[in-house]
UniProtKB/TrEMBL annotation:
<dbReference type="InterPro" id="IPR004993">
    <property type="entry name" value="GH3"/>
</dbReference>
<feature type="domain" description="GH3 middle">
    <location>
        <begin position="214"/>
        <end position="283"/>
    </location>
</feature>
<dbReference type="Pfam" id="PF23572">
    <property type="entry name" value="GH3_C"/>
</dbReference>
<feature type="domain" description="GH3 C-terminal">
    <location>
        <begin position="310"/>
        <end position="397"/>
    </location>
</feature>
<dbReference type="InterPro" id="IPR055377">
    <property type="entry name" value="GH3_M"/>
</dbReference>
<dbReference type="Pfam" id="PF23571">
    <property type="entry name" value="GH3_M"/>
</dbReference>
<dbReference type="GO" id="GO:0016881">
    <property type="term" value="F:acid-amino acid ligase activity"/>
</dbReference>
<dbReference type="GO" id="GO:0005737">
    <property type="term" value="C:cytoplasm"/>
</dbReference>
<dbReference type="InterPro" id="IPR055378">
    <property type="entry name" value="GH3_C"/>
</dbReference>
<dbReference type="Pfam" id="PF03321">
    <property type="entry name" value="GH3"/>
</dbReference>
<protein>
    <submittedName>
        <fullName>GH3 domain-containing protein</fullName>
    </submittedName>
</protein>
Length: 423
């Protein structure tokens, strides 16, 4: 749970930047917490949220997001739309794209249609909270029939801000995609910085495009390893940080817990009074390493985005890169290489020349990768386009509300990829 101080700082910051954000029933939640209701903002605030807490605890992620979306659509005067992850907001709106006729019918009749992953007893309790609303149903039909660009602000004209739990790493792809299309014209606010299940900082600057977090000294015990690491690294404490430098986080979340390297790198962007303010940079523990080249997730994503920019009309939705050495027979007989799975909008196929652009970008961005490719010790990258919704199915199969890693080595995740994304 979030420290009470963190919840109060968040709510005060939200109110100061968006004065109407805390009106009763003015916030809708799109977040999946299987098996346990999530306490929004760190504690139960029943007067703030129009979303029943039971809706987010359903066994199915897809069912939870659809039910929460239905309750959000009932409230035309929403001020805040909150999601645990930007990917959850994206997937809920994708369900709106494909399922708006059924959602409009449910609104008009005041019912909750049966669906996989929604137990009948829970459906009965949630349906008792609904009432027929033919006016809102007609409004939903009219707006969706016009298309989906800017749909969020058209459906909720008083909406002030989109709050997401995580907006860095690959989650930023979803923020950018939503900002360009469905959520055009609305700011994103990422209020908290958390690592290893512990709250470490709060964002006091909701209107800035790049999240910055004030590290609070008594929420967890933090140490920092200067980057790049020296041969005999020595950790430093909060009071020893220097502005402009990067540090890897070492965390002891609570007294008596193990001290561990969280694997996340932060940059000190300044100080607020005497406390450091940091920006998330990258996750060191997620790296491609078939020959010791050590390409981090953040740097791989940058190269991939550059390649996508060379494919006319393409927009990147999501991706996963897998080291072929762990894929077994599915990777074919060749030198170790990368298997990359991408979901795109605006482009249905790629020529061989276009597919090679990603390998070319990696060679240009990483000389060590180019050297291994020239020697033949790393084989050509293989790029696979997957269908719309493939990554949403993968998140459902993972069964976790946490952000999904985009460079993978774990065998269990590879099996899920083969059964969901590849199929």
């Amino acid at each position: 749970p979030l420290p009470t101080q963190g919840s109060l700082l968040y709510l005060d910051t939200l109110r100061a930047a968006f004065p109407q954000a805390l009106v009763p029933r003015g916030t809708a939640l799109l977040s999946w917490a299987p098996g346990r209701p999530r306490a929004p903002a760190g504690w139960p605030l029943p007067t703030l949220y129009c979303t029943p807490s039971e809706a987010g605890a359903l066994p199915s992620r897809a069912a939870a997001l659809r039910v929460q979306l239905l309750f959000a659509l009932r409230a035309r005067a929403l001020r805040v739309l909150e999601a645990g992850l930007a990917a959850e907001l994206h997937d809920a709106l994708a369900a709106l794209h494909t399922g708006w006729p059924g959602l409009a019918q449910d609104l008009a009749l005041g019912r909750l249609s049966p669906q996989p992953g929604l137990p009948e007893d829970v459906r009965g309790r949630l349906q008792a909270l609904l009432a027929p609303d033919t006016v809102r149903a007609a409004e939903l039909q009219a707006e969706c029939a016009r298309g989906f660009e800017g749909i969020v602000q058209r459906l909720w004209p008083q909406l002030e801000v989109l709050v997401v739990g995580t907006a860095h790493g690959a989650e930023k792809l979803y923020c950018d995609a939503l900002h360009q299309a469905d959520c055009k014209g609305l700011p994103f606010y990422c209020p908290f910085y958390q690592a290893a299940g512990a709250l470490l900082g709060v964002n006091l600057w909701p209107e800035e495009p790049v999240p910055r977090f004030l590290l609070c000294p008594d929420w967890a015990f933090c140490e920092f390893l200067p980057c790049p690491a020296k041969e005999e690294p020595r950790t430093v404490l909060l009071g020893e940080l220097w502005e402009g430098r990067e540090y890897e986080l070492v965390l002891t979340a609570r007294p008596g817990e193990y001290r561990c390297r969280a694997g996340e790198v932060l940059r000190v962007s300044g100080f607020h009074k005497q406390c450091p303010v940091v920006e998330y940079v990258r996750r060191e523990s997620q790296a491609l390493n078939v020959r010791g080249e050590s390409i981090t997730e953040e740097r791989f994503c940058r190269s991939l985005c550059r390649a996508v920019g060379m494919w006319p009309g393409a927009r990147l939705v999501d991706y996963i890169c897998v080291e072929s050495a762990l894929l077994g027979a599915s990777s074919g007989a060749s030198a170790p290489h990368y298997e990359v799975f991408v979901e795109l909008r605006g482009l249905r196929d790629l020529s061989e020349g276009q597919r090679y652009k990603l390998d070319q970008c990696l060679q240009e961005d990483f000389p060590i990768y180019k050297s291994f490719r020239f020697k033949g010790s790393i084989g050509p990258l293989r790029l696979h386009l997957v269908g719309a919704g493939a990554f949403a199915r993968l998140r459902e199969a993972l069964g976790s509300p946490l952000p999904m890693p985009r460079v993978l080595r774990e065998e269990r995740l590879l099996q899920l990829i083969q059964s969901t994304v590849i199929s």
